[in-house]
Amino acid sequence: MVVGLGGCVASDAITVRGERVGFMYREPANNSSDSGWQFMSGRESQEFADDASNFGVFDVNTIANYDPDIIPFLGAPVGSSFTRDPLSGPLRPDEVATPPASERRNLTRAWSMELEPSFQGRVAEGSLQLLDPGPPTRTIWVSTWESPPAVPEGPLADVRSHANPAAIERFDEAGADPTEHRFATWYPETVEGRNQWGLYAYTFRSEGYVQAAFIVDDPAALGWALDAWRSLRYRAPD
């Protein structure tokens, strides 16, 4: 099952005639409920493709039920396309958009994170906000406490006990340093009428801790959120 990706456009060749997906590509989304994905069988004639009535709007999960072969590629970025060649073979990438290289950026004098250049930062509501307008839109909220907690396990235990019980996934893991521990939860939510997914993550050290929220439209962005969170590093100020 594919949950939370939003809508897509699919050919009647797939949804009516029952043919497999032979060509899929991702365009920029038109709105927050649009995944940008387009699906065709690859057998459509030009006349068929020119008639808009031969295409419909569906939830991505519906097309995944018709053809599960598409599922491994649904997290691909805008600009990606995949084709069956031959039409009876597996889906293969035509060209995959190459994401910009990440760079290590200072969040405070002590904490840094690896981020793409597209992220712009500002202070909002007392926290650091890092925004990539996309598509897809990605937002990171960061709050740091550099006054050391008396016992790091105390705040960690409190966070664990108050974690959202409906979380889809929990991450409870050692950090990059022996004094470090990380805890996060991942779940969908609706904020001001907008559906989104969030990785709510904490990084604890003896020197202090970081609370970060990674907010995305696409649940396939979990891998990115985890990589960004795990890239957090502490270096004692000079």
Q: What is the strand and helix layout of this fold?
A:
Elements: E1 7-11, H1 12-15, E2 23-26, E3 34-40, H2 46-49, E4 55-59, H3 60-66, E5 81-84, E6 91-95, E7 103-106, E8 111-115, E9 120-124, E10 127-132, E11 138-145, H4 153-161, E12 169-174, E13 181-191, E14 194-205, E15 208-216, H5 222-230, E16 233-234
Structure description:
14% of the residues lie in helices and 41% in strands. The protein has 238 residues and is mainly beta. It folds into two domains: 7-95, no CATH class; 103-234, Jelly Rolls (Sandwich), CATH 2.60.120. The strands form three sheets. The chain has a seven-stranded antiparallel β-sheet with strand order 9-10-11-15-14-13-12, sandwiched between helices. Strand 13 and strand 14 form a beta hairpin.
Question: What low-confidence regions span 5 or more consecutive residues with pLDDT below 50?
Answer: none
Beta-strand content estimate:
35-45%
Mean pLDDT, rounded to whole units? 87
Q: Got a strand count?
A: 16
Give me the Rg, rounded.
Answer: 21 Å
The total tally of domains equals 2
Strands of the widest sheet, in order across it, are 9-10-11-15-14-13-12
Please provide the ordered H/E string of secondary-structure elements.
EHEEHEHEEEEEEEHEEEEHE
* CATH uppermost class of the largest domain: Mainly Beta
Number of helices: 5
Shape: elongated
Which topology of the largest domain does CATH recognise?
Jelly Rolls
Please bin the fraction of helical residues.
10-25%
The separation of the N and C termini measures 50 Å
